[in-house]
Amino acid sequence: MSLLEVNHIDVHYGDFLALKDVSIHVEPGTIVSLIGANGAGKSTIMNTICGLNKPTKGDIIFDGQNIAGKKPNQIARLGLSMAPEGSHCFERMTVQDNLLMGAYLAKKDERMQRLENVYKLFPILKEKANQMSTFLSGGQRQMLAIGRGIMTQPKILLCDEISLGLAPVVINDIYEKLKEIADTGLTMLIVEQDVNRSLKSSDYAYVVLEGKIVMQGKSKELSVDEVNDAYFGIN
Ligand code: ATP
Fold this sequence. Notes:
Layout: E1 4-13, E2 16-26, E3 31-35, H1 42-50, E4 57-62, E5 65-66, H2 72-77, E6 80-83, H3 95-101, H4 108-121, H5 123-127, H6 138-151, E7 156-159, H7 168-183, E8 187-192, H8 195-200, E9 204-209, E10 212-218, H9 224-232
Parallel strand pairs: 3-8, 3-9, 6-7, 7-8
Antiparallel strand pairs: 1-2, 1-4, 4-5, 9-10
Adenosine-5'-triphosphate binds next to β2 and α1.
């Protein structure tokens, strides 16, 4: 059974139909990637899964429950966590407090254990634990956003455009970490604009174009050229 099933959803912004009959399945323990150009609808898909947008058609089944139309905090409590695009964090809080916010419902010992796990994964965050997060570099903020997502100990982690505005070497670093996280068995749905990177770092991929899924398949079996054509809408 899929951990997450998006079934034939439409999403509107006013009269504008931003997603058209979108279906996505995420199997437990896999990394699934959404590929698409600017404005294709990737963030709309992520935000709809998290409860920030409501679908006007279709349903979203997460861990056996229909979550379409539920509030973001209700969905988060069911075990779905999102590291948002642009790696938003609480800038006037320290790195450590930002992380602890991700686990505010957990008991103290448990919270500290999760914190140690995140620090093991991202030692730089431990070094900067007591600094205000506003002083972090772009890559470190992205790590913080992922770390905060992990602190909730989710069943699935959604990462919207991890690479946005980062240097290639930093992006590679972060993808290495994602691999480590995936090896712990955590299921992930990620958004990535770079076709090569997307196919290399996922098990299954969907190409989004103008609000529709135009191609999908096992990442190993998809051809970069065909995905590139689908990405740009070239038939
Ligand atoms: P990007 O990579 O630039 O974030 P994306 O693939 O995530 O692009 P979305 O942000 O989901 O694309 O946008 C999909 C479409 O919906 C675009 O045409 C965009 O202009 C439109 N859109 C997104 N958010 C809103 C909104 N709040 N109100 C109206 N239209 C919106």
